[in-house]
Amino acid sequence: MAYDFYLDSMLLPVAPSKLSISIDNKNKTMVLINEGEINVLKKAGLTDISFTALLPQTKYPFAVYKNGFQKADAFLDKLEQLKTSQKPFQFIVSRTYPNGKLLFDTNIKVSLEDYKIIEDSKNGFDVNVEIKLKQYRDYGTKTVNVTIKQDKPVATVQNTRPAETSPTPKVTPKTHKVVSGDTLWGLAKKYYGDGSKYMKIFNANTGILKNPNLIYVGQVLTIPV
Q1: In terms of pTM, does the model score above 0.70?
Q2: Distance between CA atoms of residues 126 and 147, nearest Å
Q3: C-beta atoms surrounding 72 within 10 Å
Q4: pLDDT for 88-144, tens place per residue?
Q5: What is residue 186's DSSP assignment?
Q6: How would DSSP label each residue in 76-122?
Q7: What is the model's pLDDT at position 97?
Q8: Which of 128, 165, 185 minimizes the C-alpha distance to 14?
Q9: pLDDT in the model for residue 105
Q10: Interatomic CA distance for residues 204 and 193, integer angstroms
Q11: Which residues of the chain have pLDDT under 70?
């Protein structure tokens, strides 16, 4: 079984051997008179994700490079950008059978909380990086208009205003000819500003695509509105 680890649009050259995902509840234990302890159930907290990635300094036959071989510093620069940008991004782990058929994937919006560079003489010039991610949940605010009718305040709630960005303007349908290095995730980010919408492109092209992880140079894909 093959694994692909994506941080935003960056594919890690070597899939980590271990992945830790911690999903903690925020339940609260209280003591009631004559009742003893009770457990107040609350919604689950944010998911914590951690793993250690190998960043080679030389090209190995088992490493995968989406845009050709790059040394470790190129990936470290991307990690620093993700940490300092103050913006969430998509974390994807894609699991496929040896024949390329998709088994299942992990797809979650996260923030990069911390990363630690580990240099060990046993690894030669290669670099290990401990990466810690935390789930990001979108949130928004509402605006309220208050009017006075017959000396009584009346509140009306307007449409929810997203906290991040306004909706992407609608565009006319277009097509895209696949070139080397293209992925559905990258195309969704290019055309919609959100890589997680890659299945929208896949669903519009099921006549020529069988696997969202496999597209080929020269294919002409419909990019739906």
Answers
A1: no
A2: 66
A3: 19
A4: 999 999 888 877 787 778 899 999 999 999 988 888 889 999 999 999 988 877 777
A5: H
A6: HHHHHHHHHS---EEEEEEEE-TTS-EEEEEEEEEEEEEEEEE--GG
A7: 81
A8: 128
A9: 82
A10: 18
A11: 1, 149-173
Query: In sequence order, what are the residues at sequence separation of 6 or more whose Cβ sits closer than 8 angstroms to the Cβ of residue 170?
Result: 225
DSSP 3-state assignment of 189?
A: helix
- Tell me whether strands 127-135 and 10-11 are parallel, antiparallel or unpaired: unpaired
The tokens describing 216, both together, are 């080929």
3-state helix, strand, coil in the chain (%, to 5): 15, 40, 45
Report how far residue 190's alpha carbon sits from residue 168's, in angstroms, rounded to the nearest whole number.
12
Can you tell me which residue has the tokens 């960056």? 10
Q: What's the pLDDT at 143?
A: 76
Instruction: Select from 210, 212, 223 the least CA-distant residue to 177.
Output: 223
DSSP state of 197: G
Question: Whose CA is closest to 141, among 123, 130, 127, 157?
Answer: 157
pLDDT at position 34 is 79
pLDDT given for residue 67 in this prediction:
85
Query: Residue 3, by phi and psi: left (phi above 0), alpha (psi -120 to 50) or beta?
Result: beta
Give me 134's structure tokens.
């935390």
